[in-house]
Amino acid sequence: MVEQILNLRIVGKVNETAETVSFLLADTAGREILYKAGQFLTLIFSRGQREIRRSYSISSPPGNNQVVRITVKRVHNGEVSRLLLDQYHTGDILKATLPAGMFVQDEKVDIARDVFFLAAGSGISPVFSFLTNILHNTTKTSVVLVYQNHTKEDTIFRSDLIRISENFAERFKWYDFVSSPETGMHLSCRLNNEILEALIPAATQYQPADSLFYICGPPSFMRMCQFTVLRMGYEETQIKKEYFVINTPPPAPLIVNPAERVVLLEGLADEITFATMYPKTILESALEQGIALPYSCRGGRCSTCVAKCVRGEVVMSMNDILTKADIKNGLVLTCVGYAVTDIALTYKQG
Asked: Alpha-carbon distance 283 to 347, whole Å?
């Protein structure tokens, strides 16, 4: 078994908005839950004969690793969000995979540069972990939050952001966009490319080449932000994205010689091998043979399933997560990955 499972007890619940609740989670065995700002937990549920997985970003900053917080917004047709908000209470146990995700902080955190967070709605969850971590653990970095919501009441962590704005006034700027304000309270304002093009240079204190952009929100919001930032002349390497909406898994790519291939999992106490053959993905083949590889979205957008291909060739039908440097380093997404040759993979958990 490659995948490691956590048993997490709900030790508290906090109502953030009318439709959003934070869950405070602790390991039932008392172990620390180690994670980086921006990572997520994948929760595992059994519904009859089905296994359901959903990923939720950790919204608490690293530090107090005994208790971590995830923040869940109700999706009115969402099977898991409704289950969590309506049926899970303090004292209940949740199963989860180890924290994962590549929407993480650059290692050189404390340098004089601008870090922009472009978020909408519940996209604030990983962003809040990020910005609080940076502000409390650096002295030079300027943090800019551009945050879009429908109303003030819908704004998750509003009171916390107000307090942070007061405590870190010299290094934290918050641009508060509300598209459907109460009558007479605010002008309606929805972030668009024209506003963003003016906002970014106005908020920049240091060299643009050193700036970083972290984007999280609905797909249309993220596309607009990424397109605008790239059009302004910033590099792809300066942008990281985290998707909450996972589309249908993409169709398999064409493989000229779809023969059965052998997959070797290295770096474990006992080496594991299994067969895979097009048009099944590496992940599908493993799960069908009872080998528990880590996964969540199965659509190439969350990185839970990421592995390193140390030998052989893998092609992917989808990739919105891995950078060119990641791919050059051998990283692959097994949920959308197909073995072209016999391959060897390694996993790094946590």
From this structure: 13
pLDDT per residue over 173-230, tens digit each? 999 999 887 655 555 688 999 999 999 999 999 999 999 999 999 999 999 999 999 9
The boundaries of every CATH 2.40.30.10 domain in the chain are 5-97
Q: By the 8 A CB rule, do 261 and 276 touch?
A: yes
CATH, range 114-243: 3.40.50.80
Which whole number is the average pLDDT over 291-307?
89
Domain 5-97: assigned CATH number: 2.40.30.10
Q: In the CATH hierarchy, which fold is given to the domain comprising 261-346?
A: Ubiquitin-like (UB roll) (3.10.20)
**67: how many CB neighbours lie within 10 A of its CB?**
16
Give 42's contacts (C-beta < 8 A, 6+ positions apart): 53, 54, 55, 96, 97, 100, 294, 296, 302, 304
147 pairs with which residues across the strands? 119, 176
- Residue whose entry in the numeric block shows the structure tokens 């879009």: 148
Cβ distance 84 to 70 under 8 Å?
Answer: no
